[in-house]
Amino acid sequence: MGYIKTEKNVQEVDVSENPDYDVEVLGSKGAIVTDEVFGAITDKGPNYRSVGWLGTSVLMMKTQMGLGVLSMPAVFDTLGMIPGVICLIAIAAITTWSDYIVGMWKLAHPETYDIADVMMRIFGRFGYEIMNFAYTLFWIAVSGSAMLGLSTALNAVSTHGACTAVFVAVAAIIAMGLASIRTLGKISWLAWVGVTSIVVSILVLTISVGVQDRPSAAPQTGDWEPEIKLFGSPSFTSAISAIGTLVFSYAGTPAFFSIVSEMREPRLYTRALITCQALITCVYLAIGIVVYYFCGAYVASPALGSAGALMKKVCYGLAIPGLVSTVCLVTHLPAKQIFVRLLRGSPHLTSNSITHWAYWLGCVAACTIIAYIIASAVPVFGGLVSLVGALLGTLMCFQPMGFMWLYLHRNDERSTKWYAGVTWSVFVIVAGMFLMISGTYGSIVDIKNSYAQYGGTAAWTCADNSGSV
């Protein structure tokens, strides 16, 4: 329920049933809309209800699509082309259902801001604190990974023109500056640029590997074969690690609560979701199949180097705006979550007061600095991100949504449809637990093996992290 204040009177309206109300227009006329999460939204402060459904779609896509899309050929090489495609579609279907439940829950409980609020209602304070910590840790780890990704692009384009530690610091400064934009409505334009940038980059790569004689990692003389596998024969840990990569590629689900909370019209969430998931899945399938078909087992690592040194620079250069938007968004999310928790119920949440700015900039700075330190100082950061993704990414994309459906429909009439829903929800919970436990085990084994073979990286290293071609 919201309230529109005019010069003559105060009119109570149900905002969810009046999609034509534009919060920004109302605010410019001195109106007030009371939101269940943010409180009174006026022209005296940031407008936290300004994202349209197309902006929502692109924000969803940007939380999921990064250079990780180029891990799809490696997944297909591990699992085999056919099992890889089947697993990708299965993960897409389950996570799309999970994402849909987010929208259902938000409409039923509009006071929900994040996944921790859900756990508070279902499991009480203990569930709230556990999920609150998991959400924050997950996105800070992803933020650190995004900083390293941007440093990799800068290294590639400049031919290692500076110490990698310097590039990571530059990425952290960019993250802190852009993540301090207060509303997702004003970040959505950056997400548009980012998604376009990433798609163009990977399309250029795909075309390049299709027209070249052979990928750069293949033997450069004599005959060669891409060694495409229709069915792979991986070990358990390799297979579960590959499936974990697919889950991580759709692990934007926990951010969807925050995104839908800033929509002008939450009833259009499902439209935005279908647009996002359909486009994401098509891109993953197209890039994965085409690049794997032409490169096979010779996909370079990082994959943007598969078309040679020159195209590696071109592809990374095209991808930089996308990496910038990624580091902005994934730093903004944990900062906003902490900020809302600290000021929820206070008039400072939606004002331009000194207290508001002090808390907001402090949250952004804290998340940025922690992500930067972890990314730069931890000697096995890549393995750590895989571990966090396996443990927390799955935990926030599968199990909670199964419990959410059961909670929402606990009082429904017992029918065939209800029992089917219960069966599916329980399956999602059990599948999530299996993937979480096995994926965590696989990540730990990979960290152990990698550390034994290569050792860790030095803290604040200067070494080139863009790979060689």
Q: How would you describe this protein?
A:
- By secondary structure, the chain is mainly alpha-helical.
- The protein folds into two domains: 1-35, no CATH class; 51-336 and 368-454, Up-down Bundle (Amino acid/polyamine transporter I), CATH 1.20.1740.
- 68% of the residues lie in helices and 3% in strands.
- It contains 15 helices and four strands.
- The protein has helices at residues 23-28, 53-64, 72-79, 81-108, 115-158, 164-179, 184-211, 236-249, 253-261, 269-295, 309-343, 354-377, 381-397, 399-408, 416-454; strands at residues 2-5, 10-13, 33-35, 39-41.
- The strands form two sheets. The protein has a two-stranded antiparallel ribbon with strand order 1-2. Strands 3-4 form a two-stranded antiparallel sheet.
- A hairpin with a 3-residue loop joins strand 3 (33-35) and strand 4.
- Helix 2 packs parallel to helix 10 and helix 5 (115-158) crosses helix 6.
- The longest helix has 44 residues, at 115-158.
- The N and C termini lie far apart (58 Å).
- Residues 1-31 have low confidence and may be disordered.
Summarize the structure in short.
InterPro entries: AA_transpt_TM (IPR013057). The protein is mainly α. The chain is built from 15 helices and 4 strands.
